[in-house]
Amino acid sequence: MCDMCSSPEAVYRIELEGSMLNVCEKCSSYGRVIAKLKQEEPEKKKKKEKKVVEEAEVKPKKDTETLQIIVPNYSSLIKTRREKLGLKQKELAMKIAEKESVIHKLESGHMKPGLPLARKLERFLKIRLVEEVELDDTGISAKGIKGSDELTLGDLIDIK
User: Fold this and answer.
1) Which of 5, 13, 136, 146 fits 35 for a cystine, CB–CB 3.0-4.6 Å?
2) Half-sphere exposure (CA, 13 Å, Cβ side) for 58?
3) Which tens digit of pLDDT belongs to each residue from 110-136?
4) If you average pLDDT over every residue of the chain, what do you get?
5) Are 68 and 54 members of one domain?
6) What is the C-alpha to C-alpha distance for residues 41 and 11, in angstroms, rounded to an integer?
7) Does residue 59 have a pLDDT over 70?
8) What are phi and psi of 19, to 5 degrees?
9) CA 138 → CA 19, 64, 92, 132, distances in Å?
């Protein structure tokens, strides 16, 4: 049974905010998929669940969590590098299979790229747009952010 929506079939094991859940295919998108569960007889399933719980207790819990954020000056980085390569916005858009309006909004700062788009721009333009931030039990520490030892709430949220 799905731990989230009570659907009769749970086919995936996911991690969601530190908890391990058995969920259906629809609910698997809410967490990080760890494994696909095999459909078994009810007796075997109970034994397997016990075993999984015991294994989870043996593994030490991770004290830090790493978040990926987009650098604050992404718009100027993209524009500067595009101009250095001698490309127009339309040409860059065609090369990375995006709309010209998306490139314009990114460069003007009216749109913040998602991680997949940021990674695509990083690969093509050979620039760094995604930084890692480490969260631990004592607080937040910056990892890889240039010129900053501390983060603000604005660094972690997406303001529109």
Assistant:
1) 13
2) 6
3) 999 999 999 999 999 999 999 988 776
4) 78
5) no
6) 13
7) no
8) -105, 145
9) 21, 9, 43, 17
Residues 17 and 52 placed together within one structural domain of the fold? yes
Domain of residue 20: give its range.
Answer: 12-58
**Is there a domain that residue 72 lies in?**
yes
Nearest to 42 by CA among 8, 6, 13: 8
> Residue 78, exposed/middle/buried by CB under 10 A (0-12, 13-18, 19+)?
buried
Q: The tokens 């049974």 sit on which residue? A: 1
Q: Which residue has the higher pLDDT, 16 or 142?
A: 16
Residue with tokens 């990926």: 68
Question: What tokens appear for 137 in the block?
Answer: 């039990």
Least-confidence region, from 12-16, 39-43, 65-69, 75-79: 39-43
Number of domains in the chain: 2
